[in-house]
Amino acid sequence: xxxxxxxxxxxxxxxxxxxxxxxxxxxxxxxxxxxxxxxxxxxxxxxxxxxxxxxxxxxxxxxxxxxxxxxxxxxxxxxxxxxxxxxxxxxxxxxxxxxxxxxxxxxxxxxxxxxxxxxxxxxxxxxxxxxxxxxxxxxxxxxxxxxxxxxxxxxxxxxxxxxxxxxxxxxxxxxxxxxxxxxxxxxxxxxxxxxxxxxxxxxxxxxxxxxxxxxxxxxxxxxxxxxxxxxxxxxxxxxxxxxxxxxxxxxxxxxxxxxxxxxxxxxxxxxxxxxxxxxxxxxxxxxxxxxxxxxxxxxxxxxxxxxxxxxxxxxxxxxxxxxxxxxxxxxxxxxxxxxxxxxxxxxxxxxxxxxxxxxxxxxxxxxxxxxxxxxxxxxxxxxxxxxxxxxxxxxxxxxxxxxxxxxxxxxxxxxxxxxxxxxxxxxxxxxxxxxxxxxxxxxxxxxxxxxxxxxxxxxxxxxxxxxxxxxxxxxxxxxxxxxxxxxxxxxxxxxxxxxxxxxxxxxxxxxxxxxxxxxxxxxxxxxxxxxxxxxxxxxxxxxxxxxxxxxxxxxxxxxxxxxxxxxxxxxxxxxxxxxxxxxxxxxxxxxxxxxxxxxxxxxxxxxxxxxxxxxxxxxxxxxxxxxxxxxxxxxxxxxxxxxxxxxxxxxxxxxxxxxxxxxxxxxxxxxxxxxxxxxxxxxxxxxxxxxxxxxxxxxxxxxxxxxxx
Length: 709
Ligand SMILES: *[C@@H]1O[C@H](CO)[C@@H](O)[C@H](O)[C@H]1NC(C)=O
Ligand SMILES: *[C@@H]1O[C@H](CO)[C@@H](O)[C@H](O)[C@H]1NC(C)=O
Ligand SMILES: *[C@@H]1O[C@H](CO)[C@@H](O)[C@H](O)[C@H]1NC(C)=O
Ligand SMILES: *[C@@H]1O[C@H](CO)[C@@H](O)[C@H](O)[C@H]1NC(C)=O
Ligand SMILES: [Cu+2]
What we know:
Layout: H1 3-21, E1 23-26, E2 57-60, H2 68-73, E3 84-89, H3 115-129, H4 134-145, H5 150-163, H6 175-178, H7 188-198, E4 207-208, H8 225-228, H9 231-243, H10 250-253, H11 258-279, E5 304-305, E6 310-311, E7 324-326, E8 331-333, H12 335-351, E9 353-355, E10 361-363, H13 369-378, H14 386-389, H15 392-401, H16 427-444, H17 452-455, E11 460-469, E12 476-487, E13 501-509, E14 512-520, E15 525-535, H18 546-549, E16 554-563, E17 566-573, E18 580-581, H19 583-586, E19 608-609, E20 622-632, H20 633-636, H21 650-653, H22 681-684, E21 689-703
Helix pairs in contact: 3-5, 11-13, 11-16, 12-15, 13-16, 15-16
The structure holds 2-acetamido-2-deoxy-beta-D-glucopyranose (NAG) (4 copies) and copper (II) ion.
Copper (II) ion binds next to helix 9.
């Protein structure tokens, strides 16, 4: 026995003595899985260490599960802890075969976009999905944690928790608590460490994250950094891709209209970004259609990962895209390959038919064409012909993410756009997705415009609209800054006892209510209220034509209404939006796992963050068009049982285990070109629609945490 091992053994004997002074209480066996989030904490520590912010949980693990030295000594580090420890017992199973997941080294940088990594992740998801019951699932999760690359592990485990029928009630912690370095400036970790080491839990103050840490005002693009770098929208994007992975077991990937939702969600992301740009005197984002021209937009992320001592590579101004040939990633493709895929996709769109793997023509119809295209362009494993139409959108992420080291000679890894948790920080994310949307639009503009008869709902008239925001003029949205705190303690590479908070500043809007008056001259019937918002003027302050403006409409809400004969007045608050989830759910706090409210953290954890619902506007009040339509529910309705559990943000995320709850094309009625002769929104509307002139007024003030305006 060498000296180190001897010392460890000696320490463990002491520790076991300490354990005797503690009381071990098993947790309620039926609720064991509610503690799974503890597996996602402090990933640099073995599973046998005490877990939880207060270090009062322990996994009781079969000795053979533990790795190397620690395994041999069976050290359960409970040092320094006095009091009750709750024990989570882990059953011993025949361990799963991890030979494929182990192809990814423990310290490698994991990217869902890399084909090699996708294959590995798909296998791990399969392993975790195949566990026959909750006990075995917990056991396999513990076994994998000790052996696998932490990023791969968290990704696959999260997908499994979101999709196993028996884990609906298991809470998924917010990724910011797991990998905080993917979300906040690396510099603050030094200060977090000082605070945690020097100050006891009750007296700690939050560490302030500066609002402008990635660039200065010399860079015009920096004016919208508050959007790109918002913690909430990056968490949302990560979560959305957990719910809609493009590779993995077929029953997970093959969700109702997932290809169409890929198109619609990313179109909305670009629309929202453009709305912010127009709020900040920036032009709309230019689509990235020329892959040979140097790229004006630079990005220096300034995120560091202290665990893997990894710095996210930067991209300087006027970088060029290049052919990729990286042996270390088993990745090789040329820009020409992407061009070939692009040309084939355009050809399919213009022929209104695509070739499947058997060489048969699949019609790109007005109903399912967009769904087929979504899966083809992204591409997902549902693509009708991946060999022929390739993997355009994913390769685009990679060619941008690797442009600083296309052949790997500098041993540098991918940039932020190569990881869904960080991709939305990069200005090129939006240029790339503007291009991807341009492809989808080639299909949409070939579809026949909706006729007046198709749009109208005879006998239903929108006769009045009002917007009432707290402490604001009538028909104005109010926006401002707000500070909030997020607990980073669980994802740190050292182990403070108790929480350590970071304080960040984000955009916020005042709570508002829409009042919509609808006259019904027919019998009682149902309708769907669809609410959208777009800027009124373009970057040159000229009124927009509907053919341009329709790309800028962001969805604010969608809900079913009952129309009684005569006058109906509907009142709808911002906190009821079908697009958003509340702030608390975005930053899910699982320090106090209460089985009663776990379910809502899963699918219901998917939703646009409420604080980013309304674009910033400007101090003069940015003029915007609030568009409302009441459509005929008999044409919208999807026959299915009501969703269970929490209220879900279905507009962008769909419903768990259900069909997408609206039969119309996503983005209806603004998803197609307007009919002939219609140039403006006002000319477009039929009696069952309404437009309200509103303003978005930004007040340059910062509200303290959790305070209502
Ligand atoms: C991960 O990326 C960093 C550079 O950011 C690099 O130093 C490290 O070697 C990479 N890890 C592996 C295993 O490739
Ligand atoms: C596809 O469209 C063509 C032309 O409209 C039609 O003749 C053909 O039957 C359609 N194929 C299928 C499988 O519906
Ligand atoms: C939602 O907003 C309305 C109006 O502002 C308010 O009365 C209600 O309490 C809010 N509900 C929740 C759950 O916050
Ligand atoms: C999280 O929950 C714990 C216990 O319920 C509470 O003490 C803590 O303040 C919460 N943190 C946040 C950020 O809400
Ligand atoms: Cu995405």
